[in-house]
Hints:
By secondary structure, this protein is mainly beta. The chain folds into two domains: 7-131, no CATH class; 149-253, no CATH class. Helices cover 4% and strands 38% of the residues. It has two helices and 15 strands. It has a four-stranded antiparallel beta sheet, with no helix packed on it. A four-stranded antiparallel beta sheet has the order 2-3-9-8. 19% of the residues are buried. The mean pLDDT is 90.
Amino acid sequence: MSAPAPVFTRTGGAALRSATCSVLAASVDCSISASGPLLGVPAPMTFTLAATANNVGMAMRKFDTTVSMTGIDPAGRGVSALMASDGSARVTLSGSMPITGGNLIADLLCALLGLACYQMSISMPITLLADHPVLNSADPVTGWFMRNEWYRVLYYAAAQTTTPASLPTAPACTAGTNCVTVSNLTPLPNNNKRAILILTGRSINGTARPSGTLANYLEFGNAAGSFERQPVSTVIDAALKKPFNDRIVVVDIN
């Protein structure tokens, strides 16, 4: 099923005559026709522009309204989004576009009506959904994560009912039923986790990395989806679940 088309809506200011929007690879671009008094320049047109971005729920994104946007006043921008169960998000940008003499066009109908007509172009770039700072190796606080390539040894698990797949139902899980459970994790309860991270240690089974086998990174139940915490150890004793060097980090709980 194709994504809904972009929708431009005037909310105030200069009168809207027409709006045509198209989805490009890196932006949503709109051509706007407006009208105002024949004498003087009309007030800026305020508007909302809604468009759908795919796979937002599968990425780490944040809004950045400071990015360059053709034809849109940098001041007073706002943005919101509504996530869908397929991971897409309907993003709505609110803002205003200045209307200047440079946009004035000749239009017979406008002349007959005693109006001045203007043609503007605006662009909402995909960079409005910027990478989270943790993905920026130059970030002064979290840049170490990318610089040291921790993403190569970091895995996550989330209760399915806390992911976009559960929408429009509010994200939630029930302890002992469909939350993530981590054996031997304290303090109790250990069956009410919404999301966890598993950080792998160095290779302790003698295999080279990178590897396509999860068990070459994670030990015992962690490699099979039965998550567990064990004492970090280099002793070889499978009966005692050793060696083991996974670290569990709880991201969210009920």
